[in-house]
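ARCHIVE CARD
Drawer: 12
Card no.: 0347
Subject: one protein chain, sequence and derived structure
Cross-reference: see card 0346
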Amino acid sequence: MNGSMAWAGVVVGLGVLAAPEVASAETPPSVTIAQATRGGSGCPQAIVPAALTGDYERLLVVDGQLEAEAGPGVPLSKGRVFCQLAIELEHTPGWSYAVSSVTGHRGRLDLDDDITAVLSVERYFTGDKGAAQRFEQKFQGPSGGEFYRREGADDIGPWSPCNASRALNIHTSVRVSKRENPQGSGSIMLTPFWGVQVFKLHWRKC
């Protein structure tokens, strides 16, 4: 199965799970994705495929792996990498929205003794970084194998401004530190389910 077919299958499958197809009274009558882009030290600058489910309660965005590593011979620039998604939604005026993570964060660790790795996620609207929603998870070596972390049930937000149209930024970073074990090595890799991030859209009237 090629990439476009796989993406189409994910959209259709999750769209069915999020039925009904017609927006409910708790969502705006019209929502579209104006643009979705990403870029950073851990991902190329590009427009990325994104889709909404028919009830405007799920946002799906294609995402790739993100990996940081540290150790003898590894450039310092590999120790911390990030990728930032910027999503612009157009919707019926008089509504505000926020997102929360549905799929959570999955990946793989390989950490020597006293090597640490940190996963950080920050969500904010352009021009209002002070209201950012933050999630952080620290891992301590020795540790290896796959991991999965969900965000808390209250990790929603921030809310979009009612009087302006601004991009939602989702800044994800991973880093590895060998400060406590200079001769050690380690790595952390994020591997999104199906190569897609899924977000719950929360709506409220202004």
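Annotation on reverse: Residues 3-17 form the longest helix (15 residues). Residues 3-205 form one domain.
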